[in-house]
C-alpha cells in the first residue's frame, strides 16, 4: 500500500482483510452485501472454510539462511508474482462502476492473474486492455452450447490464456439471504459478454436454474478444448476420485472449491480435503484451491498441504467496494505482504520450499490423507483387503515438488497427444549416425587394446565383469583424448568417470557446497540438469541473466558482490561457454579471460560444461579449463553427443588440491570418487568399454571422429537460419518484433517473439500448426524468458527442418495476429 492514498472510510488504510470487509459492509446496500457474503443453506460450509484455515499451525524456523523470500511461481508456463489469483466472481460492477477493469489493473500491478467470470460486468476486450498479468475465463456451460462457444471465442480473441470450467453448479445453491431479500440485480448490472437478448439475468438463482446445463459429464472437457484450444482447468472438485477423473478426461488443472460455501451446504471445507486430493493429483497438473483464504499465511498453509496456488474471492470484492482499483490493490498487497512475512518467519525461501514440514505436529490436517488404494496385484502374502501404503508427496523431499524436476513433462505429454508434429524440442543427436553393429566393434577393440597392453585373460574378464574402480577404468584414454582435442592437460588421477555429466554435476555440487550460505551462480537461462541437481541438494542458486549477445562478465561480478552483501558465499559459477544449451550463445575469448580473472579475484570456482564443442563445425575457442592456470575450473565432460548418449558416460576433471587439517593432501577428484562410491559405485564397465573403443578407433581425436556429424549439425543450423530468414526477411521481422540469434554451432538457437511463449501458446502451436518447441521460460531459475523460444535442430533432417520452420512461421504469424498486430506477408512488403 505504500504511496497509495488510504481508501476512504477510515483514517488509515485497513490493516487486515477483516478490516476491509468491515469497511465494505458499511458502504454497501445490505442486500448486495448479503449477495456477496452469503452462502447456501445454513452456511455451515461457508463457516467451515474459514475455520479450517484458523486451525492451521505453521512452524517458525530460525537461522535458516533463507534470505529474501521469493513468492513468485510458475503456473501453466506463466510466471505469477505470487501463488495467488483472483477467483471468478460475477458482476464486479456491483462493487464499483469500473468493475473487472479495476480488478485487472490492481491484480496486474502485483503480477497476479484474474479468473474472469462468465457473468463479468465489463467486456473481455475492456478487461484485456486493463490487464498486465494473465487472464483466464471461468466458463459456465449453458444449455445453449452456441452461447458458451461464442463466449469462449470472444475471450480467446481477447488473449485469455485458459478456461476454468465451473462444475459444481448444475443448479445454483439455495442462498437463503438472497431468498429472504428477494435479491434482484439493479437494471444497469448486466453480463457484458452474454447476448443482450430477452434473457432475464436479474435473478442469478432463477437464471442459473433455466440457463445452466444440468447434465454435463466429463466429455465437456474435450469439447471445451476443441472450441478454445486453451488449457482447461476444472473448478469445484472436492474428492480425490473426481480429481483422478478430471485428469483422465484431459484437464490441465484442478481447482479444489466448494464455491465459497455457496453450493452444497454441508460439504467439507476445501482445506480439509486438499491433502487427499493433492496425493491423487500427484503433481500431474497444477492444483489450486479457494474458499476462506483471508491472510497471507493462509496461502502458505494451502501450499504446505499440497496446493500450487490459491484463488482469492470475496476479499477482492471488499477492496473494490471500499476504493475501486486502489482498494482491490490494497487487498492484494496486504495478502502478498503477509505471505512474505509468513515465508520469512518460517524460513521458506521460495514457494517450491513450502511443504508439509511447515506444519506443526499438532496440525489437524497433517495426517488427514489416508486414501485407501487397492492392494498390489499378485502379492499373495498380503491380506486380501490390506490398503497399499500410500505416501504423501508433502512428506517427500521438497525437490520432488520443484517444477524444475518436472520441466519436460508437459512437452512429453504434448508430443504424445500430437504425434504428427515436427518437434524442435529435443536436444538429441541425429540418429542416422548410429550403426547397430559398431557398438560391438568398440567393445572388441577395447578388449584387444587391453590384451595388447599385456593384460591377462583373467584381468580382462575382471575388467569387464566385475565391480570396477570407482573413479573409472578408462581415465588414461580420456586423458589422451582431452590432450588431443581440447588442449586440457589433466593427470588420469584428476579424472572421475561418471554416469553422464549429470552425475558429475551432482558429485561436484555435493562436495563443494558444505555450508547453507554457499551459493551457486548460474548463467540464466540455464541447463536444467544443474538447477535440478542444486534443487536435490538444497543448494541455493543465483541466476546471472545472459544478455541477447551472451554473458557479460560484469553481471557475474555484480551477482558475486550482491551475494556477499547478503552474507552468503558465492562458491562456484556454472556455465556452458560454447553453443550454450539453451540459448546457443558462445562466450568470446575475451569474456573467457575476464571470467577467469574474476574467479581469481573473488575466489570463485568455475564449473565448465561444454558438450557441444566436438560436434560443432569449424575451429572452437579454447575451453576454460585449457586456459586455466590456477586450477579454478572444474571441467564436466560428456560423451553423449560425441560418442552416443545411451552409454551414459561422462567425466569430471577435478585437479584441485585438497588439504586436510593434518596437512595431508588429495585431489578433488579423490573426494568426488568417495561420494560416487555411495551413488553409483562405478560407471558400468560395458559402457566405459564401448566409449573406450570409440576413442581408440580415432586415436582419441573425437574431432576427427565427429567431422561428419559436426558438418551435419552445422548444415542443420544453416538450414534453420536460412528458412527463418526466408519466412521473415529482415524488415518484416523488425516490424513484427521477432528476432533470433545466430549461433556458430551446437544444437540450439533462441527466437524472440512479441507474445507470451508459454504452454498455452505451445498447445496452439501443436494443435493448429503441428510444430512444437520449448518455452525458454522453462530454463530460467527465476522470472524471465517469457517471450523467447528454444529451437533445437539437431534431431531433424534438412527436409524436416524446412517443413517445420514453415509450420513454425505460420504459428508465429497466427499468434501475432491473435495479439492484435498486423502480419505482413513475405514478398508483398519486402
Ligand atoms: C459474489 C460471488 C460471485 C461468484 N461468482 C462466481 C462465478 O461467476 N463463477 C464461479 O465459478 N464462481 C463464482 N463464485 C465463487 C468463487 O469463485 C470462489 O469459489 C469463492 O468465492 C472462493 O471463496 P472465498 O470467497 O471464500 O475466497 C462467486 C463467489 C462470490 C462470493
Secondary structure layout:
Elements: H1 17-27, H2 30-37, H3 44-54, E1 73-75, E2 78-80, E3 84-86, H4 99-109, E4 114-116, H5 124-130, E5 135-139, H6 145-157, E6 162-166, H7 176-181, H8 204-211, H9 219-228, E7 232-237, H10 240-248, E8 253-256, H11 270-281, E9 287-290, H12 296-304, E10 309-312, H13 314-345, H14 409-417, E11 422-423, H15 438-452, H16 457-465, H17 475-486, E12 495-499, H18 500-512, E13 518-524, H19 528-536, E14 541-545, H20 553-565, E15 569-575, H21 589-601, E16 605-609, H22 624-627, E17 633-638, E18 649-653, E19 657-659, E20 665-667, H23 668-676, H24 685-697, H25 702-705, H26 707-727, H27 730-736, E21 739-740, E22 748-752, H28 759-769, E23 771-772, E24 774-775, E25 788-792, H29 798-818
Parallel strand pairs: 3-10, 4-5, 5-6, 6-7, 7-8, 8-9, 9-10, 11-23, 13-14, 13-15, 15-16, 16-17
Antiparallel strand pairs: 1-2, 12-18, 17-18, 19-20, 21-22, 22-25, 24-25
The structure holds flavin mononucleotide.
GO molecular function: transaminase activity
Protein name: Aminotransferase class I/II-fold pyridoxal phosphate-dependent enzyme
Region (Disordered): 359-386
Amino acid at each position: 500500500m505504500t504511496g497509495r492514498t488510504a481508501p476512504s472510510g477510515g483514517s488509515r488504510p485497513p490493516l487486515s482483510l477483516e478490516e476491509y470487509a468491515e469497511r465494505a459492509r458499511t458502504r454497501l446496500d445490505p442486500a448486495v452485501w448479503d449477495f456477496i457474503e452469503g452462502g447456501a443453506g445454513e452456511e455451515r460450509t461457508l463457516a467451515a472454510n474459514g475455520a479450517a484455515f484458523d486451525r492451521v499451525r505453521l512452524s517458525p524456523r530460525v537461522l535458516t539462511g533463507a534470505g529474501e523470500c521469493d513468492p513468485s511461481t510458475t503456473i501453466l508456463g506463466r510466471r505469477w508474482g505470487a501463488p495467488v489469483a483472483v477467483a471468478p466472481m460475477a458482476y464486479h460492477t456491483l462493487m464499483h462502476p469500473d468493475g473487472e477493469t479495476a480488478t485487472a489493473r490492481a491484480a496486474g500491478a502485483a503480477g497476479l492473474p484474474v479468473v474472469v467470470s462468465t457473468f463479468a460486468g465489463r467486456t473481455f476486450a475492456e478487461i484485456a486492455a486493463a490487464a498486465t498479468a494473465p487472464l483466464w475465463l471461468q466458463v459456465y456451460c449453458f444449455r445453449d452450447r452456441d452461447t458458451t462457444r461464442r463466449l469462449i471465442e470472444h475471450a480467446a480473441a481477447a488473449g485469455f490464456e485458459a478456461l476454468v470450467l465451473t462444475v459444481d453448479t448444475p443448479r445454483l445453491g439455495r442462498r437463503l439471504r438472497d431468498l429472504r431479500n428477494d435479491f434482484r440485480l439493479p437494471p444497469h448490472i448486466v453480463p457484458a459478454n452474454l447476448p443482450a437478448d430477452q434473457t432475464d439475468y436479474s435473478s442469478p438463482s432463477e437464471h442459473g436454474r433455466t440457463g445452466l446445463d444440468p447434465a454435463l459429464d466429463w466429455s465437456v472437457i474435450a469439447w471445451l478444448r476443441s472450441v478454445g484450444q486453451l488449457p482447461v482447468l476444472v473448478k469445484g472438485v472436492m474428492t480425490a476420485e473426481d480429481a483422478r477423473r478430471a485428469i483422465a478426461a484431459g484437464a490441465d488443472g484442478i481447482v479444489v472449491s466448494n464455491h465459497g460455501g455457496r453450493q452444497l451446504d454441508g460439504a467439507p471445507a476445501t482445506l480439509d480435503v486438499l491433502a487427499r486430493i493433492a496425493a491423487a493429483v500427484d503433481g500431474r497438473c497444477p492444483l489450486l484451491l479457494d474458499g476462506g483464504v483471508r491472510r497471507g499465511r493462509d496461502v502458505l498453509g494451502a501450499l504446505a498441504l499440497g496446493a500450487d496456488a490459491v484463488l482469492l474471492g470475496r476479499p477482492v470484492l471488499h477492496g473494490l467496494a471500499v476504493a475501486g482499483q486502489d482498494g482491490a490493490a490494497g487487498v492484494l498487497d496486504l495478502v502478498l505482504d503477509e505471505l512474505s512475512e509468513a515465508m520469512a518467519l518460517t524460513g521458506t525461501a521460495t514457494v517450491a520450499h513450502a511443504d508439509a514440514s511447515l506444519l506443526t505436529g499438532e496440525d489437524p490436517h497433517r495426517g488427514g490423507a489416508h486414501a485407501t488404494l487397492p492392494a498390489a496385484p499378485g502379492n499373495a502374502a498380503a491380506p486380501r483387503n490390506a490398503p497399499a501404503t500410500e505416501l504423501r508427496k508433502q512428506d517427500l523431499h521438497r525437490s520432488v515438488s520443484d517444477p524444475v524436476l518436472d520441466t519436460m513433462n508437459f512437452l512429453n505429454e504434448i508430443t504424445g497427444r500430437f504425434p504428427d508434429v515436427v518437434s524442435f524440442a529435443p536436444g538429441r543427436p541425429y540418429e542416422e549416425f548410429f550403426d547397430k553393429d559398431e557398438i560391438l566393434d568398440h567393445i572388441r577393440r577395447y578388449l584387444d587394446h587391453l590384451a595388447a597392453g599385456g593384460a591377462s585373460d583373467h584381468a580382462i574378464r575382471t575388467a569387464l565383469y566385475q565391480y570396477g574402480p570407482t573413479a573409472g577404468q578408462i581415465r588414461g584414454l580420456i586423458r589422451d583424448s582431452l590432450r588431443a582435442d581440447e588442449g586440457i592437460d589433466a593427470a588420469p588421477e584428476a579424472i572421475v568417470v561418471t554416469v553422464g555429466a549429470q552425475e558429475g554435476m551432482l558429485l561436484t555440487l555435493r562436495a563443494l557446497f558444505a555450508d547453507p550460505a554457499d551459493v551457486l551462480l548460474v548463467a540464466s537461462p540455464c541447463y536444467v540438469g544443474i538447477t535440478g541437481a542444486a534443487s536435490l541438494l538444497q543448494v541455493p542458486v543465483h541466476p546471472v541473466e545472459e544478455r541477447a549477445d551472451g554473458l557479460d562478465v560484469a553481471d557475474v561480478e555484480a551477482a558475486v558482490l550482491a551475494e556477499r552483501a547478503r552474507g552468503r558465499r558465492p562458491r562456484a559459477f556454472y556455465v556452458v561457454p560454447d553453443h550454450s544449451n539453451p540459448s546457443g550463445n558462445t562466450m568470446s575469448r575475451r569474456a573467457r579471460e575476464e571470467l577467469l580473472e574474476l574467479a581469481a579475484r573473488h575466489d570463485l570456482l568455475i564449473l565448465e560444461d561444454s558438450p557441444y564443442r566436438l560436434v560443432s563445425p569449424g575451429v572452437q575457442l579454447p575451453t576454460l579449463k585449457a586456459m586455466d592456470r590456477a586450477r579454478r575450473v572444474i571441467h564436466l565432460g560428456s560423451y553423449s553427443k560425441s560418442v552416443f548418449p545411451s552409454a551414459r558416460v561422462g567425466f569430471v576433471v577435478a585437479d584441485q588440491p585438497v588439504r586436510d587439517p593434518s596437512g595431508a593432501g588429495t585431489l578433488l577428484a579423490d573426494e568426488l570418487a568417495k561420494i560416487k562410491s555411495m551413488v553409483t559405485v562405478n560407471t558400468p564397465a560395458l559402457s566405459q568399454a564401448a566409449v573406450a573403443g570409440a576413442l581408440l578407433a580415432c586415436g582419441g581425436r573425437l574431432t576427427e571422429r565427429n567431422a561428419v556429424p559436426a558438418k551435419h549439425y552445422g548444415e542443420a543450423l544453416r538450414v534453420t537460419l536460412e528458412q527463418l530468414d526466408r519466412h521473415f526477411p529482415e524488415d518484416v521481422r523488425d516490424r513484427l518484433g521477432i528476432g533470433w540469434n545466430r549461433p556458430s554451432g551446437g544444437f540450439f538457437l533462441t527466437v524472440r517473439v512479441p507474445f507470451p511463449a508459454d504452454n498455452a501458446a505451445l498447445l496452439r502451436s501443436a494443435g493448429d500448426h503441428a510444430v512444437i518447441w520449448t518455452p525458454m521460460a522453462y530454463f530460467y531459475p527465476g522470472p524471465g524468458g517469457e517471450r523467447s523460444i528454444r529451437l533445437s535442430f539437431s534431431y531433424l533432417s534438412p527436409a524436416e527442418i524446412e517443413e517445420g520452420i514453415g509450420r513454425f512461421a505460420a504459428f508465429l504469424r497466427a499468434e501475432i495476429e491473435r495479439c492484435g498486430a498486423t502480419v505482413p506477408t513475405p514478398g508483398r512488403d519486402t
